[in-house]
Amino acid sequence: MTVKLYLPCDAAALAVGADDTAHAIATEAQARGIEIQLVRNGSRGLLWLEPLVEVETAQGRIAYGPVAAEDVASLFDAGFLEGAAHRLGHGATEDIPYFKRQQRLTFARVGLDDPLDLDAYRAHGGYAGLDNALLMEPGAIVQCVTDAGLRGRGGAAFPTGIKWRTVLEAPSAPRVPSTSDRASDRASDDAKYVVCNADEGDSGTFSDRMLMEGDPYTLIEGMTIAGIATGATRGYIYLRSEYPHAHRTLQAAIATAYANRYLGDDIRGSGLRFDLEVRLGAGAYICGEETSLLESLEGKRGQVRFKPPLPALQGLFGKPTVINNVITLASVPVILARGADYYKDFGMGRSRGTLPIQLAGNIKHGGLVELAFGVSLRELLYDFGGGSLSGRPIRAVQVGGPLGAYLPESQFDTPLDYEAYGEIKGMLGHGGIVVFDDRVDMAQQARYAMEFCAVESCGKCTPCRIGSTRGVEVIDRLIAGEQPVKQEALLRDLCETLTYGSLCALGGLTPFPVLSALNHFPEDFSKAAPVPATA
Amino acid sequence: MKSERRVIPIKLERPSSLTESQRVQVMAVCEQLQTMPGALLPILHGIQDALGFVPKDAVPLIAQALNLSRAEVHGVLSFYHGFRQQAPGRQVVQLCRAEACQAVGARELEAHAKQRLGIDFHQTTADGALTLEPVYCLGNCALGPSLMIGESLRGRVTPQRFDQLMQQARLMGAQP
């Protein structure tokens, strides 16, 4: 009898040697004359256990990890193909507490099977949302997404249904013609667009990548539903170039979807059209900002646009455009498949549904944790994360990427909720949580935040372009102890200018990490002995 | 649509430094992609994939193909960190500088890498084997510090592991 094994092809698993492990398993099985079927699945998200090997047994899928190539022979010796005990064994995957305690809606299928196997996708409930959507009026689909309370998962948390409604009701002919008269820039006959923001640039976030690599059809299905709901017939996935694995997976999945009439001019015989392609970014963090992303897709410098006009009315090539993050679009199929109420029943306050949280940095059990809104940071850090990787006390946690605040332990009980984080002058962003132990120098982290802003600024507005460079200089003087009181006042003043004078979130939110470091960890800024003013 | 295109001929002011093979490859990429909406980024990627970088003398050819000014093409080319205007070494090593990797030793790894290779970011080792570039997140934030060699992602990179990986990368790059 052929034994079925699973071993992820996710980039994080490959980064710690999954291909070597796969090769060792195949070689060892052949040497022993055992017939196996090795399925390369997406990652279950228990990243500290990667490469995670799962064996299908009568008792379910049994997990072993992290399995290095040199562990393989001993696993065969122990009888892991029958699910036998081994020092790397963790029992049934779905009973591992880290996994069992999650509420997987958007990530329900990630890690179950070969990401490109369309039959497996259908067998696990895929395309049920599209099947339902094809029987509904566009307005009813938009209403369903609105009723579910879905908000943009990219960071801004704007209600998705309202955005879609605006695009649905926008006249299909542009009110103002595109400023460009160049043939290569001009839009084709398509009147509206769906754009997926897959420019996941925040440090500490990898949920978009895991979903695109582990369950690409979910994103394709979500975008197709968005197209049907708003009357858009062409979609673009703007993917960051740092994700070559996701690029290959998406390209292959789109080709298969076309071949099976899930994309193209007659989706599942409905007569409806939706075309989809992937476009690569080129290493510009700012292109995660939606208007800058649209400029980039048009073949220009990724500079931020003024709003209004909203992209929903004049977006890509001047046409009405739905632009949503990967996780937002990938949450749509489950809403259409199981209904708005099912999704809305998860969460708290105005934050409905689930958030795929990413535990990263100096954390023992790093990985993906999808949970309803409302969980506290403390639960995530200690119950799920198991404390720091180094075993030292956790001193600071940055939530929401490079523009998110650094939180001290006194704020670890804040519930993960968009509004609650707004109140403590932080943000949930894309749900990335980066953990630092007590060796972190928070003055250096504040300096890095300004440096990052200087490197990544698009240059359009002065506070961000120049203020970030001045910010690095002021922090350097502050750290060196040159007139520290004056420097701190200057830094706070500069942060106010950035907050209120920047066009987009890059300049506007860079003060979050800077000021939170300064407010919560002032001792790190005053290590140097004060230097008397020289002049 | 095509009949309306205004083509303004652009005269090359100086002899191009492109080899014949490079010129042919640049033209092939332009011809293949120029009718796409928003074709400039795909074309720049296509050229970089083919040649390893976008030579400055490719700019007038791209400008002509897309009916853009050279300044506009240069503006886009120089805006994005991901496009190189100089030929890289045989392998490009992208080292993550972002916070999640910093939390597990990326600052130390960066110092080690620069010292061991004897180069700073955006530079190539004297033997032409390796180019070191900074990158702000590779999406491997739970298993840092991370780096990418070509398109191969590596996690949990200690200084010792870095040295091994660089040795392998030099061998890989040396193969024809």
Descriptive overview:
The complex is a heterodimer of chains A (535) and B (176). By secondary structure, chain A is α/β, with parallel strands linked by helices. Chain A contains 21 helices and 16 strands. In chain A, strand 14 (394-399) and strand 15 (406-407) form a beta hairpin. The longest helix of chain A is centred in the last third of the chain and has 19 residues, at 462-480. The radius of gyration of chain A is 24 Å and the shape is globular. The model of chain A is unreliable at 175-187 (pLDDT under 50). With 176 residues, chain B is of the alpha+beta class. Chain B has helices at residues 20-33, 40-51, 59-66, 70-79, 99-102, 106-117, 159-174; strands at 91-96, 123-124, 130-135, 147-149, 152-154. Chain B has a five-stranded mixed β-sheet with strand order 2-3-1-4-5, covered by helices on one side. In chain B, strand 4 and strand 5 form a beta hairpin. Chain B is elongated. The model of chain B has no long low-confidence stretch (mean pLDDT 94). Chains A and B meet through helix 1, strand 12, strand 16 and helix 17 of A and helix 2, helix 4, helix 5 and strand 5 of B.
Main attributes?
heterodimer, A: 535 residues, alpha/beta, Glutaredoxin, Rossmann fold, Ubiquitin-like (UB roll), 4 domains, five-stranded mixed sheet, 21 helices, 14% strand, globular, B: 176 residues, alpha+beta, 2 domains, 5 strands
